[in-house]
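stage 2 :: seqdesign
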C-alpha cells in the first residue's frame, strides 16, 4: 500500500537570505500509524508540521523546495480548505488558532465553512464536544480559557472536519494529568479507528505511544526509530538520542 504521507527532499527558509530551517528532509508515513517527531527546541519540528498541513507556504510565506504528497496527491494542488479535510493540526501556539467568541462557534466554524447541512454540523459539534468532554466550556470565550483548555478546543475544532491525519504540536505537555489521560485515550481510539496521528513533543513519556519516531537535529532528519510495539527499545533509543545532543 502506498504511504498516506510522502515527503521528499523538503527544504525551507522563512526568508530569502535567512538560514536553512529544513534541510532535505525525506520520510514516509503509513496510514493508521502513530508517528512522533522529536528533537531539541529549534530543530524544525513545528516547521515540518506547518509544511505538512499547508500553512507553509499557503499562509506563512517562505522558500520551499521538495515535495509533499498526501494520499498520492501533491499538496501544492490542494486548496487550504481541501487540505484541512485531510489533515488537521493543533498548533503549539494555540492562540493563533482560536478567534471566535465561543467554544461552540470554534467547533462549528470549519464544517460551516464547507457549507455542510445544518443537521450534519450540529451532529459533528455534539459528537466532538462529547468526545473531548468540554460540555462545560461550550459557551465560554476561548480567550478566557487556560492553555490546556485552549488546546482541547483547538483539537475539537479540527476533529469536527473528521480529517484522516491529525497533528498535535506539543499538546500533551500543556494538559493537566486528567486531560492528558483523556486526550491520550482519544488519540488511541482515533488511531484504532484508522486515523493517522503525528505527535510532536519534548517529553519522552508522551512519545511512547508512537510506532515510529522521526529524530531531527538542526533542520535535518537524522534517524528514524521503527519500534512498533517494542516500547523498551523505543525508550532506550530516545533517551540515548536526547543524551547525545546535550554534549
Ligand atoms: N516565523 C519564523 N520566521 C523566522 N524564523 C522562524 C520562524 N518560526 C521559526 N523560526 C526558526 O526556525 C527554526 C525552527 O523552529 P521550529 O519552531 O520549527 O522548531 P521546533 O523544533 O518546533 O522548536 P520547539 O521545540 O521550541 O517548538 C528556529 O531556529 C526558529 O527560530
Ligand atoms: Mg515547535
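stage 2 :: out
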Amino acid at each position: 500500500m502506498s504511504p498516506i504521507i510522502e515527503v521528499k527532499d523538503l527544504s525551507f527558509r522563512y526568508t530569502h537570505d535567512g538560514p536553512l530551517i529544513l534541510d532535505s528532509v525525506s520520510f514516509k508515513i503509513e496510514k493508521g500509524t502513530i508517528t512522533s517527531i522529536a528533537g531539541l527546541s529549534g530543530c524544525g519540528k513545528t516547521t515540518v508540521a506547518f509544511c505538512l498541513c499547508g500553512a507553509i507556504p499557503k499562509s506563512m510565506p517562505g522558500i520551499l523546495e521538495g515535495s509533499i504528497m498526501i494520499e498520492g496527491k501533491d499538496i501544492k494542488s490542494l486548496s487550504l480548505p481541501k487540505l484541512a479535510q485531510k489533515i488537521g493540526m493543533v498548533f503549539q501556539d494555540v492562540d493563533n488558532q482560536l478567534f471566535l467568541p465561543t467554544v461552540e462557534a470554534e467547533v462549528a466554524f470549519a464544517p460551516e465553512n464547507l457549507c455542510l447541512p445544518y443537521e450534519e454540523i450540529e451532529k459533528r459539534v455534539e459528537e466532538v464536544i462529547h468526545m473531548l468532554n468540554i460540555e462545560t466550556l461550550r459557551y465560554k470565550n476561548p480567550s478566557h480559557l487556560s492553555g490546556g483548555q485552549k488546546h482541547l478546543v483547538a483539537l475539537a475544532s479540527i476533529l469536527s472536519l473528521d480529517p484522516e491525519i491529525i497533528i498535535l504540536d506539543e499538546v500533551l505537555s500543556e494538559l493537566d494529568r486528567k486531560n492528558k489521560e483523556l486526550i491520550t485515550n482519544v488519540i488511541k481510539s482515533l488511531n484504532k479507528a484508522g486515523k493517522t496521528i503525528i505527535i510532536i513533543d519534548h517529553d519522552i513519556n508522551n512519545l511512547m505511544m508512537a510506532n515510529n519516531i522521526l529524530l531531527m537535529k538542526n533542520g535535518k532528519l537524522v534517524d528514524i526509530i521503527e519500534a512498533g510495539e517494542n516500547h523498551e527499545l523505543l525508550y532506550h533509543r530516545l533517551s540515548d538520542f536526547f543524551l547525545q545532543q546535550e554534549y
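stage 3 :: structure notes
- Residues 177-192 form the longest helix (16 residues).
- Strands lie at 5-13, 22-29, 34-38, 63-70, 73-74, 87-90, 165-169, 196-200, 212-217, 220-226.
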